[in-house]
Structure formats: C-alpha cells, structure tokens
Amino acid sequence: MKRTRDGSAKGVTEYRKPVQAAELWRGEIERLAWGGKGLARDPDGRLLLLSAPLALFPGEEVEAEVRWKARHGEGKVLRWIKKDRRRVPAGCSVASLCGGCDLWEAGGAAGELKRSMAADLLHRQLPELKDWRYVPAPLEARRHRIQLHWDGEQLGYHRRSSHQIVPVKTCPAAADTLSEAIPRLLDALQGKILPQRAQRWELATGTPEGRVVAIDEKDHVWLLESDGWHRNEAATSEAFEGFTLRHRAGGFFQVSPPWAVVAFRGVLEGWNLKGGTLFDLYGGVGLFSALLGKRFQARVLVEYDVAAVEWAKKNLATLDLDSECVASDTGKWLAENLGAAEDLILLDPPRSGLEPEVCAKLQSAKAETLVLIGCDGAAFCRDAQRLAPVWKLVDLVVLDLFPLTHHVECVGLFRK
Predict the structure, then answer these.
(1) CB 156 within 8 A of CB 149
(2) Of residues 138, 262, 269, the one with CA closest to residue 207
(3) pLDDT band (50, 70, 90) for residue 308
(4) Per-residue pLDDT for 135 more than 60?
(5) 35 touches 49 (CB < 8 A)
(6) I need a labelling partner for 402 at 20 to 30 A (CA). Which of 53, 218, 254, 409 fits?
(7) Average pLDDT over residues 230-259
(8) Is the CATH number of domain 133-137+256-415 3.40.1190.20?
(9) Of 23, 56, 20, which is closest to residue 40 (Cα–Cα)?
(10) 166 with 53: CB under 8 angstroms?
(11) Please, are residues 339 and 365 in contact by the beta-carbon 8 Å criterion?
C-alpha cells in the first residue's frame, strides 16, 4: 500500500479479494493428507482439503462447509453421512469441541491413520526416500504437561479454531495425577487462592508421575499438596532406566517422557552411534546426551535457555559425562568446519525447524554423521532438502510421541 511521506495512508484505495461464500458439500474422503486433513475430490475434479473435530477415515462420506479458492476448496466437516466401521465412541466428553486432540474415535486404527498421514507427506516432499519406519504410541502413553486457560470464571481448553474456553474438569489424554488436579486448580482460582487475572496455566508432573505443579504465565510455581496449593520452586525430576534428569518446573521437556525415552532409545541404539565428540545442539537439559551416554568420549551441548543449560551441567556431571555446556543461540554458535569425521552432530530444534543459516553452516561440517529430530514433519522435510547437497538421509523413523493428535516426531540419520 502506498503511503505519504509522514507514513499515513491518506487518499489510498485498498483492494481486497472478496471472501467467498460458504456452501454445503457432500462427498467421500479419498485419503488423509498431512496434518489430519481429509482429501476429497469434487465431481468437477477440483481437490478439497477438509478438517474435522474428530478422526477422519478414507472412504467415509461427509457433509462439509466449503469455501472455494481459485483451484481448490477448503472446509470443515459438519457431520458424517457414512461412517467407517472401525470408528469407536470418543473417550472424552468434549472431544468434538476441544482443540487439543483431533483423533478421538479412531480407536485402534489411530496408528494406521497417522502412518498414512506421514506417508502422504514423505511421498510428496521426499520422494527419493523409499524405506522408513513408523512406531505407534502404546495405549498407556499420556501427557505429563497440559495447558489450561482461565478467563476469570471458567477453566479449560480453547475451543477448536477459537479462543473461547471449553470448560473441563478431567482430561483423559493427560496423566491421571494431572487430570485429577484440574478441579483443585479450578477451586483455588474460584476461591481466589491463586492469581485471578485471566491467563494460561500449565499443570505438570515428572516421571514417574506423582507430584503436580501449576505454573502461571510469570513462571510462578505452586505445588499441589494435601491441603492445597503452595508456592514451591523445587525442580521436577524425570527418572528413567539408567539415568535421572532434573529441570525447572515449567521448563521444556518431552510431553510424554516415559514413552519418549523408550522410543528415542530404541532408535538411537539401533543405529549404534558412537565416536569422539557429540555435538548436542538445541540440547535442552541433556536428554540426548544422557541417552547416548558413554558411547561418545566428550559432549558439547548448546542451548539458548540459560536455565536449561545450568540444569544440563548438573545433570551430565551427575552422570559422570564429560561435557561442555554453552548458553547460546545455535545459529550464532555454530562454526564452519564443525567437528571431525568420528563425531556426531545431533539437532533437536524447535517446531519451526532449523534456521537457514544453520543448514548453510552444516554444509562444511567435518563430522560425517548427523541426526536431525523434528516435531513438525513439514519442517523436517524442508530441512532435509536444505541439507541434501552434502547430507544424505539414510534412515528415517517416525515416532508417535503425541497420542490422539496428528503430530509426529521425525528422527533422521544422515551421512556425508
């Protein structure tokens, strides 16, 4: 838009494309696309991408509200006309409203549906990749962290595609101790025992699940005890076979830690990774350094979160793992010609994936093995393509670390 010298937009006419009117559409789901979208086809040949509050199965007939664009349509499913016989009743009373889970009613077919979504993405984005593995989540996998919203009257999750609150008093996707703590958090808010301002709250527990903490948006922590909530800054402990990690309450950690550690350990041990120095980039509090343990002679952990780095130092020292832990932005710390042939570069970036400068600097690395972990499949594929001039993706394992959602974790092994 043109502006005058003083920055105002006076006298400028804006042109916007008109919003297309919604129309009802009926038809069959052809297959599942990445992100849990149902891909359908109109009789005139145009493609449709349909979202739904519950799981979609290929072959189901639905009625949807659709808006057409130039070459395709997008919409949301309003009701099912013909349902797949594998569909089962949701185990959550607000499944059709809550924005937290989108695979309720999939039942035992959830793993098959998620695998088909991943296959759709990989076929389109990494067509040269012929072999990869999918590992479904066990039925007992539950979340050890949940985010709730309080508006001054109601406590719950956001309604799908909205900031309206769906009140909840239990959550079957969460660990039992967290689900049972929701009414007690609500009572404390309504009783004005905890801060009253509208805000996001996190409930979290460690491994094994036990003590529950509530964290507000200012990172103040309350511990749930028999007589109520009490301020407490004690660390959260995550105990696994062979090692224990500690981190600040509310600090980033795996959503379902017991299952995540089993899954990651199986992948990394299967690849028999070992050597000189492990460069653990975006390293958090040291999970992957701990998992690889004595397989490497030394470790360099780089993490932006200063508090996480301090915990990483303590955790790895307790495990007698020789480590250098650096508080820095990975892109700024990463140097050209990183490492030597026998070293491993392991990256576990945020959901947005690797920054372009990181991919560029990795092209000159001297290390000959790289592991990339991505909690967004599309970002992982993009980064694999950026690394491709030098790094070949030789194995890929897709892990279901986020049960009842369409999200997966990609773990890729790259060689020079």
Answers:
(1) yes
(2) 262
(3) very high
(4) yes
(5) no
(6) 218
(7) 95
(8) no
(9) 56
(10) no
(11) yes
**Per-residue model confidence as pLDDT tens digits over 173-199:** 999 999 999 999 999 999 999 998 999
Q: How many CB atoms lie within 10 A of CB 1?
A: 7
DSSP output for 288-348? HHHHHGGGEEEEEEEES-HHHHHHHHHHHHHTT--EEEEES-HHHH--TT-S-TT-EEEE-
Task: Say which residue the tokens 């797949």 belong to.
Answer: 84
CB 345 within 8 A of CB 302: no
Rounded Cα–Cα distance for residues 69 and 51 (Å): 16
CB 342 within 8 A of CB 275: yes
Which of the following CATH numbers is that of domain 23-98: 3.40.630.30, 2.40.50.140, 1.10.3720.10, 1.10.275.10?
A: 2.40.50.140
Cis peptide before 349 (omega within 30 of 0): no
Q: Does the structure show a pLDDT above 70 at 9?
A: no
What confidence category does residue 388 fall into, taking pLDDT thresholds of 50, 70 and 90?
very high
How many angstroms separate the CA atoms of 298 and 301, rounded?
10
Q: Which amino acid is at 46?
A: R
Every domain of the chain and the residues it spans: 23-98, 133-137+256-415, 145-240
Structural element, H or E, at residue 350? none
Range 102-125 average pLDDT: 95
The DSSP call for residue 144 is: S
Is the pLDDT at 17 greater than 80? The verdict is no
Contact between residue 212 and residue 204 where contact means Cβ atoms under 8 Å apart: yes
pLDDT tens figures, 239-248: 999 999 999 9
